[in-house]
Amino acid sequence: MATLVIAEHENGALKGATLNTVTAAQQLGGDIDLLVAGSDCGAAAEAAAQVAGVNKVLLADADCYNHQLAENLAQLVTELSSGYSHILAPATTTGKNFMPRVAAALDVAQISDIVSVEGADTFKRPIYAGNAIATVQSSDAVKVITVRTTAFDAAGEGGSASVEALSAAHDAGVSSFVKEELAVSDRPELTSAKVIISGGRGMANGENFEMLEKVADKLGAAVGASRAAVDAGYVPNDMQVGQTGKIVAPELYIAVGISGAIQHLAGMKDSKYIVAINKDEEAPIFQVADYGLVADLFDAVPELEQKL
Amino acid sequence: MKVLVAVKRVVDYNVKIRVKSDESGVDLANVKMAMNPFCEIAVEEAVRLKESGAADEIVVVSMGPKACQEQIRTAMALGADRGIQIETDEDLESLAVAKLLAKVVEEEQPGLVILGKQSIDSDNNQTGQMLGAITGMPQGTFASEVNLGEGIVDVTREVDGGLQTLSLKMPAIVTTDLRLNEPRYASLPNIMKAKRKPLDVKTPADYGVDVTPRLKTLKVEAPAQREAGILVSSVDELVEKLKNEAKVI
Ligand SMILES: Cc1cc2nc3c(=O)[nH]c(=O)nc-3n(C[C@H](O)[C@H](O)[C@H](O)COP(=O)(O)OP(=O)(O)OC[C@H]3O[C@@H](n4cnc5c(N)ncnc54)[C@H](O)[C@@H]3O)c2cc1C
Ligand SMILES: Nc1ncnc2c1ncn2[C@@H]1O[C@H](COP(=O)(O)O)[C@@H](O)[C@H]1O
Fold first, then answer.
1. Predicted complex: ipTM over 0.95
2. Closest approach of chain A CAs to the CA of B194, in angstroms?
3. What is the pTM of this model?
C-alpha cells in the first residue's frame, strides 16, 4: 500500500490544506509520496520534503502545470498512479477540479470530501449538505479521494524526504490561463482561521462589512459571508461559507445577520463555538448557536467591537 | 452550435431530509423532488446562448427512473428543444453518468456541454470533470461567466482565492456555479408547449455502458447534533461567556 498526495502550493509555499491531507494519508498506513506540480515550484517541493511522514517528493516543474490546469495536471497524476493504492488531494477548488479527471481516466469512482478514514477501503463523507453522513466502501483497485481539510489536523514538520525531479510535461493543448483576480488580505485564510465573523443579507450593503472587519481586527479573525451577501454584491465570492462555498470549522464562528439556511449551516456547523447575532429570535441559526443574541446588528456589532 | 445540458432530479433544496432509522439511507418517500439548482442554472445559460443566436439547438439529458422525465419537461418549458432520458433504477454514480454522457456527446456532437457543478444530494462535484477525461474535452468548472469566441470559450471560475479566467478550445465542458445567472420561471404556455417536444427514452444497455456501482454504502447516519445553546441578554454577557466559559477570546 502506498499513497500519492497531490500538494497544493502557491508562490513557493505549501498551502495548509496539503498538511491536513497528509494526515488523512497517514491514517491509511503505508508510504506517502507527495507530488508538487507547477511552474517554478522548487521551493514548495523543498517545503514538502520537510513534512513529517513523507517518504518522497515528486517535483514536476514545467510551464504546462502553471495554474494547475486540470487537463494537464490530471494526465500527469494518471501517469504517476501506477504503484499507488490511494491518490489523495484536498477538497479545495483545485482538488475538486482535477481529481475527478484522474478517477475517470483510471476508470474508478472518486470518493469526494471524506471526513474520516474507517479502513483502507472505507470512508465517511457528508451528503445532503451534511444532513447525513454516509459510510462508503470502495471496490476499486485505486482509491481516488478528496479530503475535507477541516476534518483532519495538519501534519507537522520534521520530515527529510528526498526530492525527485520528473521530466514528463503533459500539455493537452486544449486550455490556457487568461487571468485571475485573487483577493489580497492581511487576515488569516477562512479555511484555517481560528475565529471567523461572517455577515449575511442583514448587513444591508458592502460598506457595513467594515463593522465586521473592525471586530475581526481585534480578534485576529477572518471575515466570511453567506451566499445572499455574495449574490447581492456586498462582498466577493471567495468569502462564501456553505455547502457550495467554503467549509470552515474555527474555534469561534460569529454569524451576523445570517438566518441559518441548511446550505449555510453545512459550511460552519462543525465550528467549536457558534455565536449568532440576529434580530429575529425565530431565525434557525439560533438552533445551532451556543450563544445567541437577539439584537439589531447595527447596535450590537459596534458595541461588541468596543468591548473586546 | 448545439448545446447539451445534463439535468438531475434531486430532493428539493428546501426539504430537510431525514435519515432512515435502520441507517440504510435517506428517507425519500413522499419527499418533494425538483431539478438540481445548479442544473437550472445550466439550462438557463443554454437558453441565453440560444436567445443570443450563439446556439441553435438545446438538447437536455437526464438519467434515472421514469420520474426524471418531469425535470426534462421542465427544462423544455424553459427553452430546451428536445430531451433524452436514460432510464435506470440503478443508483447512478458520477462515473456512470459521465460514461453515458460521453456516449451522448459522441452521438450529438455538441459544441458545448453544460452541467451543474454539484448535485445537492450526493454533493459529489465530479461528473463534468469525469466527462472531460473520457472525451478529452477541456473543462471550465464552477463558472460565473461564460463568453463564446471563435472556436473558443472563455470561462471565469469561482475559485477559493477569488476568480480565475481560462480559455478553452471547443467543444468544451462548463459546470455552473451559483452566480452564472439567475434562472427564469417557466410560463404556463411554455409548460404546455413542452409537452409536445420530442423526448427519447433509452437505457444504459442501448449505449453499452455498465453502470454497476463501484461504491457500497454501508450505512447512512444523522450527523452529530449540537447541544442546545443559550440566549444571552446583552453584548456584555456575550463577551463574558466567550472569555470565561468558552475561553475562545
Ligand atoms: C444550491 C444552493 C446552494 C447554496 N449554497 C449556499 C452556501 O454555500 N452558503 C450560503 O450561505 N448559502 C447557500 N445557499 C443559500 C441559502 O439557501 C440561503 O438563501 C442563504 O444562506 C441566506 O443568506 P442569509 O442568511 O444572509 O439571508 P437571509 O436568509 O435573508 O437572512 C438574513 C437574516 O438577517 C437578519 N437581519 C436582517 N436585518 C438585521 C439587523 N438589522 N440586525 C440583525 N439581524 C438582521 C434577518 O432576521 C435574517 O435572519 C444555497 C442555496 C442553494 C439553492
Ligand atoms: N443522473 C443524472 N442525470 C443527468 N445529469 C446528471 C446526473 N447526475 C449528475 N448529473 C450532472 O452532473 C452534475 C454534477 O453532478 P455530481 O457530479 O453528481 O455532483 C449535475 O449538476 C448534472 O448536471
1. yes
2. 30
3. 0.97
